[in-house]
């Protein structure tokens, strides 16, 4: 899954922690959040840069130089005024505390991997775990039915509401809350047991459990279903919920998406004595949410702590000392958690980089390329360099051959004018191919601008320029005007052209010479055959010599352009790899 930008709320719950295998899982938006963060679209990472808006924050970085106690002591937490000196909690995972999420939880049963769907409200995230409140567990079939019913409810509510926005008194709730009251008591199977009840008797436990094979339920049995026992709950063989809380390993959750947030009436805390412990967890959860978003300057409505808690938890007159004490405790815990997340990420980064640096290719020739060998770029570059070298040698050999075998009369002098340029271009192309081959055997992550990189870039660019120059020059050498000008010079300076006429029994170039023709190329004093023109003979000779130069030069230009493209591909791939590690 592609990795999301770190400035967005769409952050990965199960993002790779230290030593976590595989890539990050995804989290995408379901419906909008019901609190003020989402209402102003600030939870998506937009930071209010106006210092007069939101809570006044001192830009205090959570650095290793200051202890947690020192940071917390500097903070002035006020219930009805903006907090000050809040340290910036930069861990983006913390932003989704208080949001409902749905994911696949992985459990190992008798050595077999079992995946079940879970839905709950994120109470806390650490470097290794995520804690959910009010958790529902679904089998694959039940979850599909549950999603179908939610989709149908949303469509019905959108039609009734003509826009899908609702107001609950003075509280603005988003479309995510539509139909959520039924959701809290809805069994997607239409009855997980024989009487259609959903089981609510489970306590909090870790979803990653190991059980024996003989304790598992046979899904093909047609006999009446048995009551949900604790063993079945731990096995994960039935749809169940809500469970007060569950703890999940971040390494063992997948396909994370935002879910259906509970109705605000669900968070009416401290009204039922039997829910005292659960209500306290809800209170702590929203205190965490407030501290995280306020520290990140994501409080667009400028709400203070007490109004926010009273609004979100539907609870008036919370004890001041209790709220301040919880805020201090949770701030301490959040700072500690963020430091642990940062340290784990740093350790994971160092570990992965060390692992990449320690990797050696099984191919002896590319042993120095390390992990880059797996991208096939070194092998592709080396193969291209070998091909470049072969074509450059071919150009050089043909240049030498043409120079040494050209006829001595007329042709030799014309070929000699272009031999040096062709030979020089072929030598530079040969050197450039050698630089490419050398670089292909030494490229390695992290990619640096080494001497091999510089030599390759300079040599290939120079080779492209010289081969292009050769192509233009040789292309002009086979034109009628260039050949005609050369022959005029030869006719005026020596008798070499006359000897050529006598040898090939022809006269003139581009014209038919009469007996008394005074043209320079007809050479009246030369006793040659004036009935035949030398045009076709000279043109075919020059073309036969120079056309291979043109073709080979074009091939070299294309190869060195591909060389540059592979170099660019190397830079792009190395950046992607370094970003992932």
Automatic annotation (TrEMBL):
<feature type="compositionally biased region" description="Basic and acidic residues">
    <location>
        <begin position="1"/>
        <end position="13"/>
    </location>
</feature>
<feature type="transmembrane region" description="Helical">
    <location>
        <begin position="457"/>
        <end position="480"/>
    </location>
</feature>
<feature type="transmembrane region" description="Helical">
    <location>
        <begin position="382"/>
        <end position="403"/>
    </location>
</feature>
<keyword id="KW-0812">Transmembrane</keyword>
<feature type="region of interest" description="Disordered">
    <location>
        <begin position="214"/>
        <end position="234"/>
    </location>
</feature>
<feature type="transmembrane region" description="Helical">
    <location>
        <begin position="545"/>
        <end position="566"/>
    </location>
</feature>
<keyword id="KW-0472">Membrane</keyword>
<feature type="region of interest" description="Disordered">
    <location>
        <begin position="1"/>
        <end position="52"/>
    </location>
</feature>
<feature type="region of interest" description="Disordered">
    <location>
        <begin position="154"/>
        <end position="173"/>
    </location>
</feature>
<keyword id="KW-1133">Transmembrane helix</keyword>
<feature type="transmembrane region" description="Helical">
    <location>
        <begin position="418"/>
        <end position="437"/>
    </location>
</feature>
<protein>
    <submittedName>
        <fullName>Uncharacterized protein</fullName>
    </submittedName>
</protein>
């Amino acid at each position: 899954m592609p990795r999301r930008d770190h400035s967005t709320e769409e952050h990965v719950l199960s993002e790779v922690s230290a030593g976590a295998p595989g890539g990050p899982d995804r989290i995408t938006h379901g419906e909008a959040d019901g609190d003020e963060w989402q209402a102003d679209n600030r939870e998506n990472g937009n930071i209010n840069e106006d210092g007069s808006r939101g809570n006044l924050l001192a830009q205090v970085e959570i650095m290793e130089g200051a202890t947690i106690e020192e940071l917390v002591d500097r903070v002035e937490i006020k219930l009805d005024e903006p907090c000050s000196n809040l340290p910036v909690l930069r861990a983006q995972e913390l932003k989704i505390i208080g949001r409902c999420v749905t994911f696949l939880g992985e459990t190992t049963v008798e050595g077999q991997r079992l995946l079940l769907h879970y839905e709950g409200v994120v109470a806390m995230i650490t470097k290794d775990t995520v804690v959910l409140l009010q958790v529902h567990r679904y089998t694959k079939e039940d979850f599909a039915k549950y999603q179908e019913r939610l989709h149908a409810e949303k469509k019905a509510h959108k039609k009734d509401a003509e826009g899908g926005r609702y107001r609950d008194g003075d509280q603005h709730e988003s479309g995510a809350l539509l139909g959520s009251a039924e959701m809290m008591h809805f069994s997607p199977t239409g009855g997980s047991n024989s009487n259609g009840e959903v089981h609510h008797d489970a306590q909090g436990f870790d979803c990653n459990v190991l059980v024996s094979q003989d304790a598992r339920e046979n899904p093909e049995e047609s006999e009446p279903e048995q009551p949900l026992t604790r063993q079945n709950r731990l096995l994960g063989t039935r749809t169940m919920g809500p469970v007060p809380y569950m703890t999940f390993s971040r390494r063992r959750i997948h396909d994370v998406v935002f879910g259906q947030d509970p109705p605000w009436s669900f968070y009416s805390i401290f009204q039922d004595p039997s829910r005292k412990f659960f209500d306290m967890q809800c209170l702590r959860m929203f205190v965490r949410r407030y501290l995280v978003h306020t520290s990140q300057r994501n409080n667009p409505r400028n709400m203070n702590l007490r109004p926010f808690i009273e609004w979100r938890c539907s609870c008036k007159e919370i004890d001041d000392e209790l709220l301040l004490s919880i805020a201090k405790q949770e701030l301490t815990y959040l700072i500690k958690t963020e430091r642990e997340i940062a340290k784990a990420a740093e350790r994971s980064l160092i570990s992965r980089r060390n692992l990449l640096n320690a990797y050696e290719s099984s191919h002896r020739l590319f042993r120095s390329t390390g992990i880059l060998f797996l991208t096939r770029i070194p092998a592709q570059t080396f193969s291209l360099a070998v091909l470049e070298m072969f074509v450059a040698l071919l150009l050089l050999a043909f240049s030498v051959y043409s120079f040494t075998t050209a006829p001595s009369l007329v042709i030799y002098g014309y070929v000699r004018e272009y031999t040096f340029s062709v030979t020089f271009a072929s030598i530079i192309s040969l050197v450039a191919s050698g630089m490419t081959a050398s670089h292909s055997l030494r490229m390695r992550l992290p990619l640096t601008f080494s001497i091999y990189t510089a030599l390759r870039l300079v040599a290939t660019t120079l080779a492209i320029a010289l081969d292009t120059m050769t192509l233009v020059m040789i292309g002009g050498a086979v034109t009628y005007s260039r050949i005609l000008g050369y022959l005029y010079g030869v006719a005026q300076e020596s008798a070499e052209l006359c000897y050529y006429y006598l040898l090939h029994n022809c006269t003139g170039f581009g014209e038919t010479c009469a007996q008394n023709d005074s043209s320079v190329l007809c050479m009246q004093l030369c006793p040659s055959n004036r009935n035949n023109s030398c045009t076709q003979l000279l043109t075919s000779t020059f073309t036969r010599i120079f056309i291979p130069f043109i073709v080979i030069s074009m091939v070299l230009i294309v190869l060195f352009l591909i060389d540059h493209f592979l170099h660019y591909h190397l830079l792009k791939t190395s950046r992607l790899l370094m970003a992932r590690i």
